[in-house]
Amino acid sequence: MSPRSAAVPPVARFTTGTDDCKWLIGHPPCRAFFCHAHCFDMSVHTPELQCISRRARREFSVALMSDTKWRKVFEAWAKLPVAETQMLVKFLDVPEARVMRLPDHGALWCPTPYIDSREYGPVELRAIEWLEIPAVASWPRPNKLPARQVVQELDAFRTAIALLGQFPLIETERGIRVEGFRP
Q1: What is the C-alpha separation between 107 and 74, in angstroms, rounded?
Q2: Residue 164: what pLDDT?
Q3: For residue 143, what are the contacts with CB-CB under 8 A and spacing of at least 6?
Q4: pLDDT mean over 147-173
Q5: How far is it, in rounded angstroms, from Cα 54 to Cα 51?
Q6: What is the rounded average pLDDT of the residues 17-45?
Q7: 171: β partners
Q8: How far apart are CA 68 and CA 19, in angstroms?
Q9: b vs e for 57-69, b when ≥16 Cβ sit within 10 Å of the residue's Cβ?
Q10: 172, pLDDT greater than 80
Q11: Average pLDDT over the chain, rounded to whole?
Q12: Sequence ranges of the domains in the chain
């Protein structure tokens, strides 16, 4: 089971020794971000980040976004005067896209390789394959009520990206997508 599907902070993701990332085996899983300083020294690339990078190099031929570029996108979008925004995020280690709220400016307090999210806790930016903002957000409601449909203003997001420079923004049938990797 993927940590994002179980809403476990990603810092505990490789405790099972999957792939070639066995660096946390035998270490108790961290439940709070950066709870063990010896595991999360951000002055160097942690084994977790190196593992994600190796996986991306194995599965994709082109990396279009870096941690810094992703942060610039999130910073620009956090400054927009828009209501709560829904986004779909496809992570490298999860077969289907995950629905998330667009992180606000407070989510940028994490060290550069990460961003905080309400749904999944800290997320490694280099683990994002692509991010899409749908033209119409579908917010689930309790008690089997139909989902609340909200039209999202995509022009503000397009403009914010255009002001940053050249970023891999493409139009899809659902909305706009920022690509992190291409096959």
Answers
A1: 9
A2: 92
A3: none
A4: 93
A5: 5
A6: 37
A7: 176
A8: 26
A9: eeeeeeeebebeb
A10: yes
A11: 76
A12: 62-182
